[in-house]
Design goal:
Elements (H helix, E strand, L loop, with lengths): L1 H9 L7 H8 L9 H30 L6 H24 L11 H34 L9 H20 L22 H36 L7 H36 L11 H21 L2 H11 L36
Length: 350
């Protein structure tokens, strides 16, 4: 048994340099700064800084406004924290890419990729958690402001546990002991891991699509039933239209930002040698990172209370007196009541 273990260890390449795995996978390493490297780093640093500032604004807004101290805003704040982390992880990547990649040790390389995997995974898991809680709220005929605080906190903690687990997984699920399974996009990762990660994100999107589709169908069915009453108010139709817009923006942003990168990962994971995945990987990764910039716009800026808080913060008016807060429409927690039952149908923040 000892001889078998020793033979297996002889085939592991833990002590090799990062360039060894890149050369084996056929991924070119830049020894000098080339124009395309400079362009990508400049774009990456710009996106990272904007992501950091926008998500920091969301977190500060939630902390500074007591009206936002509600469970649904905890989820939005957790999403902003995940996207803030994504900005930091991508910033770390930009500072350790190009010719600097050659200087990385295997451990630092795994740290660089692990931070990125954890942050992006946390963002996706939070998006799914928000969709699930919105679904539970609508089906339970309950405003989002009354979500159980304990369950929301468990969801928040669970999202980070899942993200941390996915970040640590490549440390064990890699190709250090099996070079034939090394991916081209991430030469120290196993192709099977890339396939599993891409399929996991695809599954998350399908679940989100199914959840929002069920919410929309439920709301439309109730609206059609309500329209038969003489007392039907145009506000209910506006609620349906607002819901459709939100669903389209949420799913559309996810598809545009995430699909190209997931397709490339899947092709590489499945071993498509004829696919030129290396030509587009950096651009598609940047597009996936841009989703962390889109999220604050989709989930926060469409909310009247959040918008008023943003204006107050950006104008430097840091007084927390609620008497001076604009009331531009319904806030999350306000109900849209049905004339036939008197129960809330859907929260305005949807």
């Amino acid at each position: 048994m000892a001889k078998v273990l020793a033979a297996v260890m002889d085939h592991c390449y833990d002590n090799e340099s990062v360039s060894f795995f890149y050369n084996h996978s056929g991924k070119q390493l830049s020894l000098y700064w080339q124009p395309k490297d400079v362009v990508m780093v400049v774009l990456g640093l710009t996106v990272s800084v904007v992501v950091l500032l926008t998500n920091l604004l969301v977190i500060v807004a939630i902390i500074s406004n007591r009206r936002l101290h509600l469970p649904i805003y905890y989820l939005l704040g957790n999403l902003a924290a995940a996207d803030l982390f994504a900005g930091l992880a991508y910033l770390f990547l930009m500072l350790h890419t190009g010719p600097r990649t050659v200087q990385l040790s295997v451990r630092v390389w795994f740290l660089r990729q692990g931070l990125l995997d954890a942050s992006l995974s946390a963002s996706v898991v939070n998006l799914l958690a928000i969709a699930v809680e919105r679904h539970r709220s609508v089906m339970a005929v309950q405003p989002l402001s009354l979500l159980p605080r304990g369950r929301v906190l468990l969801l928040m903690a669970g999202s980070w546990i899942v993200a941390l687990g996915l970040a640590l997984l490549p440390s064990y699920w890699n190709c250090l002991c099996n070079l034939d399974h090394c991916a081209r996009l991430a030469p120290l990762y196993s192709r099977t891991f890339l396939t599993a990660w891409a399929l996991g994100n695809l599954l998350a999107f399908l679940l989100m699509a199914a959840v929002y589709a069920r919410i929309f169908l439920y709301v439309r069915r109730r609206m059609n039933r309500m329209s038969q009453h003489a007392g039907f108010h145009p506000r209910y139709r506006e609620t349906t239209i607002a819901l459709v817009k939100t669903v389209v923006i949420i799913l559309g942003a996810f598809v545009v930002c995430w699909t190209p990168g997931q397709v490339v990962l899947l092709l590489d994971g499945l071993g498509c040698d004829s696919c030129n995945v290396l030509a587009v990987e950096k651009y598609f990764l940047l597009l996936a990172e841009a989703n962390s910039l889109v999220n604050p716009v989709v989930y926060s800026c469409r909310d009247a209370e959040m918008r008023s808080t943003f204006r107050r913060l950006l104008c430097g008016c840091l007084r927390s007196s609620s008497r001076h807060m604009p009331q531009n429409g319904p806030r999350p927690g306000m109900r849209v009541s049905l004339p036939d039952s008197g129960h809330p149908l859907v929260d305005s923040s949807l």
